[in-house]
Specification:
eight-stranded mixed β-sheet, Rossmann fold, OB fold (Dihydrolipoamide Acetyltransferase, E2P), 3 domains, 462 residues, 29% strand, 23% helix, seven-stranded mixed β-sheet, binds S-adenosylmethionine
């Protein structure tokens, strides 16, 4: 066929490739196209062409795959949030398991690893307990909005269109967060539109309103509203807080984070509590957790309980063990393991998370957890004790290679590795493999409608 860049072709999608994209193979050349499902016949424009692969952009579906389902949300063909909404959930789980399996084989060179069926999320909509919406002075228009001259393009609050950093889709209803969040989002949108301050401009770095972060507590059905602004002009923000606090009894906390940092992070250099508590509370099993606006907390609360139950099972505690939890966040894993272990140490780099972890231990009357603040690679070498069990739950980038070396030199008999990225899990397991048997991997679906998958691996020292 002689595939050429910028030309469009009719292609048959034959599989799902790494990264969740549809795969076509005209004349044997792999072409990766987002939002396609095996069995689709599509018309796609080639946007990138390399020697051994190409990337395409979906223009039109000519014939829909029999596997295709109706998306529930108006934005599912455009938004970066959940690109797999039109794929049946069982099929999503199948591809997620395969993603873990193929990562082990192709990235880690690890064959014959036992990978269990994915533990599914009970809720596949309204499951996210945290959403972060960006404010932009450039609103991206849906195809159905293009002809409508009444729609102003100078403000949008929502999620990014993949591949653009300064344009957002003005999201009116996001189906993966509990619905009250959409009402709060709408009120914030109307307030900002009528306000005297403009939205932040990601290219010029001018403007005021930056992000709206919403957190929901499943156990208490309460909300945290966190407004991120560029500067500390609080009159209007206080007005917004008053309106929201009055209208929504479920709002337990309204925070403002102020940051003029040019990067797109929502963590403020200064944080002010405008209403209620400076945190939100959540429950996992029998334990209660206090979560500050910028502390990490697993985003699917109910499935997190399944994840931690697997961690507990793999840790195989009898009450006499010393456990070390690397990357401990707000202390959730140490606290959930505390009554089955002799002592649990948590190490975490974010100060507010360590403060939360210590308070969380106190809140639950736990005395056998200790939390250390710092970069794992600096803290680990100073620790005297060899743990019986080590839990490792790093961010998407996985472990720093110095940390892998330190773990190998400490040599705990049992490691439970929790990962949200099969690629870095495979890379790190390959380095641990000469010393550790990889007994099995349990994928857990924390993120329905995305290709993301969490995994828990059990490693035993040879
Ligand atoms: C995937 S989260 C896991 C948190 C926790 N285990 C949980 O389940 O909620 C990863 C955590 O690692 C922390 N972190 C990232 N890099 C780190 C580093 N170099 N040293 C220590 N902690 C780090 C992050 O702040 C975050 O809290």
């Amino acid at each position: 066929m002689g595939i050429k860049k910028r030309k469009a072709y009719e292609l048959e999608i034959i599989d799902i490739a790494f990264g969740g994209k549809g795969l076509a193979k005209p004349d044997g050349l792999p072409v990766f196209i987002d939002r396609c499902i095996p069995g689709d016949i599509v018309y796609a424009k080639i946007t990138k062409k390399k020697k051994s692969w190409a990337q395409g952009k979906l223009i039109k579906i000519i014939k829909e795959s029999s596997l295709r389902k109706e998306g529930k949300c108006n934005y599912c063909n455009f938004c970066g949030g959940c690109k797999w909404q039109q794929m049946g959930y069982d099929l999503q789980l199948e591809y997620k398991k395969r993603h873990v399996f193929e990562s082990m084989q192709h990235i880690g060179g690890l064959k014959d690893i036992k990978i269990l069926d994915v533990l599914a999320s009970d809720d596949i909509f309204e499951y996210r307990n945290k959403m972060e919406f960006s404010c932009s002075s450039k609103r991206w228009l849906l195809p159905s909005e293009l002809e409508n001259e009444d729609i102003k393009k100078d403000f949008g609050i929502g999620l990014h269109v993949p591949g653009t950093f300064d344009k957002v889709i003005d999201i009116k209803c996001c189906k993966i967060m509990p619905n009250l969040g959409n009402d709060i989002l709408e009120d914030v949108r109307q307030f900002i539109k009528a306000s005297n301050h403009p939205a932040y401009h990601l290219r010029t770095h001018e403007g005021f309103w930056r992000f709206l972060m919403l957190r929901h507590s499943v156990a208490f059905d309460t909300w945290m509203v966190n407004i991120v602004t560029k500067s500390k002009e609080m009159d209007e923000v206080k007005g917004l807080a008053q309106i929201l606090a009055k209208k929504y009894p479920a709002i337990d906390s309204i925070m403002v984070n102020i940051t003029d940092a040019k990067s797109g992070v929502s963590i403020g250099k200064e944080e002010i509590c405008l209403y209620g508590n400076d945190h939100i509370k959540e429950r996992l099993g029998k334990f209660i957790f206090k979560i500050s606006p910028n502390s990490f907390f697993q985003t699917n609360t109910k499935t997190c309980e399944k994840l931690y139950a697997k961690v507990l099972e793999y840790a195989s505690l009898t009450g006499t063990e010393v456990v070390m939890d690397l990357y401990s966040g707000t202390g959730t894993i140490p606290i959930c393991l505390s009554d089955k272990a002799k002592m649990v140490y948590g190490i975490e780099i974010v100060k507010s998370a360590v403060i939360d972890a210590k308070e969380n231990a106190k809140l639950n009357g736990i005395e056998n957890c200790e939390f250390l603040e710092g970069d794992i690679k600096d803290v680990l070498p100073g620790l005297k004790q060899t743990p019986d069990v080590m839990i490792i739950d790093p961010p998407r980038v996985g472990m720093h290679k110095d940390v892998v070396k330190q773990v190998l030199s400490i040599g705990p008999p049992r490691i439970v590795y929790v990962s949200c990225n099969p690629a870095t899990l495979a890379r790190d397991l390959e380095m641990l493999y000469p010393t550790y048997d990889i007994k099995e991997i349990q994928p857990v679906d924390m993120f329905p409608h995305t290709y993301h998958i969490e995994s828990v691996a059990l490693l035993l020292k040879r």
